[in-house]
Known about the structure:
By secondary structure, the chain is mainly alpha-helical. The chain has a single domain, classed as Tetracycline Repressor, domain 2. It is built from nine helices and no strands. The longest helix is centred in the middle third of the chain and has 28 residues, at about 100-130. The termini are far apart.
Amino acid sequence: MLVFWEKGYEATSIPDLLKAMGLSRSSLYNTFGDKRALFLEALRFYQKQMDSRQEILNRATSVKEGITEYFNQRIESAYSTEHPKGCMTTNTSIELSTPDNQLKELVKNRFLGLENSFYQLLEKGRLSGEIKSTTDTKSLACLFMNLNHSINIMGKVNIDRLHIGQMIKAVINII
């Protein structure tokens, strides 16, 4: 997973994978079939690990607190030196140049799942009166999903994280 995350699908070679996994070529092919199948498995594994971050939105009792906590963790992760820069799903979406429908669907579903988590939280806040009843929660959820992925890209190129935190505060103040 880390090799694909750092290099991307196209730039990752079979020798890179064999070295990282400590496997022989035949073991890799016997276990996973091919590089594409291994990549899909690695991306699914990565996404499952990231489910806990999305859970922040699902269990939040306050819209603003939940979104703030989510984005604080997102920013921290995007700038972490403990793993490759950015988000593997975001990186994959940028790299998608092949007509691999299964891969596109996996990325699209992840994006839409995050957008739905934002939407559900915003709707909860709209219904409880925490945010205005006239708030366009669908558009705002889409905006938050896009901010999430832009943070990953900005972290990858080391844009000043202070600016990102200020951007998130400004957007949260809108609601």
